[in-house]
Amino acid sequence: MTVFEELTRRGLIAQMTHPEKIEELLNGEKVTFYIGFDATADSLHVGHFLQMVVMKRLQQAGHRPIALLGTGTTMVGDPTGKTDMRKMLSVEEINHNAMCFKRQMEKFIDFSDGKALMLKNGDWLLHLNYIELLRDVGVHFSVNEMLTAECFKTRLEKGLSFIEFNYMIMQSYDFLKLHRDYGCMMQLGGNDQWANILGGIKLTRRVTGDDVYGMTFTLLTTKEGKKMGKTENGAVWLDPEKTSPYEFFQYWRNVADDDVINCLKLLTFVPIEEIEAMEKWEGSQLNKAKEILAHELTKMVHGQQEADKALEAARAIFAGGTHSDDMPTTSLVSSDLADGAISVADLLVKTGLAPSKGEAKRLIQQGGVSVDDVKVSDFAAVIGKESFDKGQVILKKGKKIYHKVLLG
């Protein structure tokens, strides 16, 4: 199977500028392509993961990826998919975030001996002369066309700032720069980046006369179209300090039955023939598919050892047990207790099982919380110091989420 057939069969491709030419390039030539990552946080998250999977697939097929860290574009902020302007970050924050991205990407992509490049667009964007940019680049953009782009249309009602309006021009200039300096022929990205990618292709063709191409990936969404990678506590991060390997495993172990096969196709390197055979699975068989998904992804992000530990802990819990050394754990100190006790609601917030006291109250009132297998129905319920005499207290949220609490 060719790499293009693999991408197609897995449902990874959303849109292409020139399907026949792109298929020819990916199957018959060695192409330099790029994907941009704005450094808006100090860790990559699940939304970035699919892009790195595609980069890895294409690299394995002999193509050269450029991972472009947006140390320049992050100074402006991409309006795509946002109802409000992004938070402005300092140069120091952006550079720190970019270094965090770099360390994580190096686990997935082989940057040795020029097999892939990691560049920062701040190295050129931050030194551009504004008047020259307007004359050399801005002249090629139609404001009328830009305003029809989905990334701008969704913001016009609430107001689109002038700084954000420049984002498409900056990203487009990146493609021109990478084509000129590194022979980059393709820009790839999530399907929400289609308008920005088209901007770069048009600019590069108008300035250089060369043909370049664009391709977007399917966004990682549920069957209902909701973006995946979010929990009630926030994003699912690739940094183990922000989302533990066990929590990462549990996120994928708990995906809906309707979504597990699609996630296996998009995110894992499990042979497509094996995944297609799983499409006939139903009922309890789908739990096995979810286990495969969770283990494969945790192994890719956190390594074999952490994946095995998370799998063992999850199996112990699903088998009816609640004790595991690898279960997420929170350690309390005496000062966390008031008069020798702590409320269940406070404990839910402290362990991260609820983002707020209000959400904790809702969970308790709906019967979704247990302490040591005893359901809690009173929002004012407390856990006394004596409950820790056996060594630990086990909190349970819903049917599948367990958390161990220790008292030091």
From TrEMBL:
Entries under Pfam families matching the protein: SYY_C-terminal, tRNA-synt_1b
Keyword Nucleotide-binding: yes
Keyword NAD: no
Short sequence motif 'KMSKS' region: positions: 227-231
Entry binding sites for L-tyrosine: 34, 167, 171
Molecular function, one GO term: tyrosine-tRNA ligase activity
Keywords, ordered alphabetically: Aminoacyl-tRNA synthetase, ATP-binding, Cytoplasm, Ligase, Nucleotide-binding, Protein biosynthesis, RNA-binding
Enzyme Commission number(s) from the entry: 6.1.1.1
TM region positions: none
InterPro entries reported for this sequence: aa-tRNA-synth_Ic, Rossmann-like_a/b/a_fold, S4_RNA-bd_sf, SYY-like_C, Tyr-tRNA-ligase, Tyr-tRNA-ligase_bac-type, Tyr-tRNA-ligase_bac_1
Limits of the Tyrosine--tRNA ligase SYY-like C-terminal domain: 325-403
Annotated positions binding ATP: 230
Subcellular location(s) per record: Cytoplasm
Biological process, per Gene Ontology: tyrosyl-tRNA aminoacylation
Function per UniProt: Catalyzes the attachment of tyrosine to tRNA(Tyr) in a two-step reaction: tyrosine is first activated by ATP to form Tyr-AMP and then transferred to the acceptor end of tRNA(Tyr).
Name of the protein described by the UniProt record: Tyrosine--tRNA ligase
Gene name tied to this protein: tyrS
